[in-house]
Design brief:
InterPro entries: NGN-like_dom, NGN_dom_sf, NusG-like, Translation_prot_SH3-like_sf
Structural class: mainly beta
Largest sheet: 5 strands, antiparallel
Helix content: 10-25%
Keywords: Transcription, Transcription antitermination, Transcription regulation
Radius of gyration: 19 Å
Strand content: 35-45%
Number of helices: 3
Protein name: Transcription termination/antitermination protein NusG
Length: 187
């Protein structure tokens, strides 16, 4: 079952369950590239809850730009498991899954709160939204569009979700206007 397919009350129950005393924790599974959706469907059929953080990515191919929804961590997904009660070894044989990330003979859990933080940053559209910490003057990385992967300084942020970023190009700062959802604050 994917997390975004749940009702909001069910989603909050799943978000809180790994930290609770019921034994459920989040684990990382290695997935064949581009097979995250297929793996999610097959895990759902087996009764497992999974989560794949997604974001918009700009892909350059043959001098053309296209924006697509893609996994934020290509080749990986999170699965909520109670290793003492569930048949977790079946995950390794699931279509699209290469294997769980292991420590010895048991899956290695993700630190408590990490996946819950990603879930909290996921918008209603199912995409990660890091724009919550944006403030004028902060350094930002552009995530999508023709200026993807450039780093600049946030100059202005308006109430409609538009941002102006100053990017250092050719001995000067060039202003670029774009959607604030395509920015992430960097340290």
């Amino acid at each position: 079952m994917t997390l975004l397919g749940l009702a909001s009350t069910e989603r909050s129950a799943v978000q809180n369950s790994p930290a609770a005393d019921n034994g459920v924790r989040w684990y990382v599974a290695s997935v064949s590239l581009g097979k995250e959706t297929i793996a999610e469907q097959h895990l759902y059929r087996q009764g497992f809850v999974s989560y794949v953080p997604r974001s918009k990515r700009t892909v350059r191919h043959a001098r053309q730009l296209s924006t697509r929804t893609a996994a934020y961590f290509p080749g990986y997904m999170f699965v909520a498991i109670d290793v003492n009660r569930q048949r977790w070894r079946s995950i390794n044989g699931t279509i699209g899954i290469r294997s769980l990330i292991m420590r010895g003979d048991r899956p290695s859990p993700v630190p408590i709160g990490l996946v819950e933080r990603f879930i909290a940053l996921t918008g209603k559209d199912g995409l990660l939204d890091f724009s919550g910490g944006l403030k004028p003057g902060s350094s930002v990385r552009i995530l999508s569009g023709p200026f993807a992967e450039l780093i600049g300084r946030l100059d202005r942020l308006d109430s409609t979700g538009r941002a102006r970023v100053l990017v250092a190009i050719m001995n000067g700062e060039i202003p670029i206007d774009l959607e604030s959802s395509g920015l992430v604050v960097i340290a």
